[in-house]
Write a sequence for this structure.
């Protein structure tokens, strides 16, 4: 079964600083990978998804970008964080057996 | 993506069965019905999914209407650990999951 490693669990960053969140997947090959964000008290919003190395689709216009340098590695980045980037970020992986979510990173931009 | 409609919240007492409804009147023939739940400060957890027939697993049962325009997630005996937000989602296989607002289930001792 798939296992997702996401770190760090919590992060506090100042406005204008860069961001890099990494997600790695074990137990599967060539999965579809996803980044979601959940604002406080809200539902999950799909930000990016990837069907393969170097292939990224963006779901909503935003201050963030994503990259997939390896089959089981998905990175979420920002050059300059905004206050509105605060939230709970979740990485997910999907293969023919289904979806698995990581434990998430809670980002607070101050 | 086909949409689903769920009640915002439901309540149950411990040890009682819980029936969580979901309407999906615009479902297409290839859409699977997925249920996930999210405990506070955690990522969503898979509960169950189905296409046409009712499904059972160790966590829950999924009852799918004959016309597939609605479904019900059944927790046979609610526990305090079942308190979570439950999401009903339509998706085709490894297609992206689009989450709605879900149903917040409260379980009282």
């Amino acid at each position: 079964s798939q296992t997702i490693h996401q770190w760090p669990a919590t992060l506090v960053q100042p406005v204008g600083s860069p961001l890099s969140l990494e997600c790695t997947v074990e137990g599967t090959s060539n999965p579809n990978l996803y980044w979601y964000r959940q604002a406080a008290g809200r539902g999950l919003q799909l930000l990016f998804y990837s069907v393969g190395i170097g292939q990224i689709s963006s779901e909503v216009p935003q201050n963030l970008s994503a990259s997939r340098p390896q089959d089981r590695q998905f990175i979420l980045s920002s050059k300059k964080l905004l206050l509105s980037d605060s939230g709970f970020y979740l990485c997910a992986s999907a293969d023919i057996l289904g979806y698995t979510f990581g434990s998430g990173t809670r980002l607070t931009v101050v | 993506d086909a949409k689903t409609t769920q009640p915002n919240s439901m309540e149950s007492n411990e040890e009682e069965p819980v029936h969580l409804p979901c309407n999906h009147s615009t479902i297409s023939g290839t859409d699977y019905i997925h249920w996930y739940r999210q405990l506070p400060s955690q990522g969503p957890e898979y509960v169950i999914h189905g296409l046409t027939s009712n499904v059972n697993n160790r966590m829950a049962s999924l009852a799918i209407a004959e016309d597939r325009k609605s479904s019900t997630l059944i927790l046979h005996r609610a526990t305090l650990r079942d308190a979570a937000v439950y999401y009903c989602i339509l998706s085709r296989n490894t297609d992206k999951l689009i989450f709605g607002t879900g149903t917040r289930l409260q379980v009282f001792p």
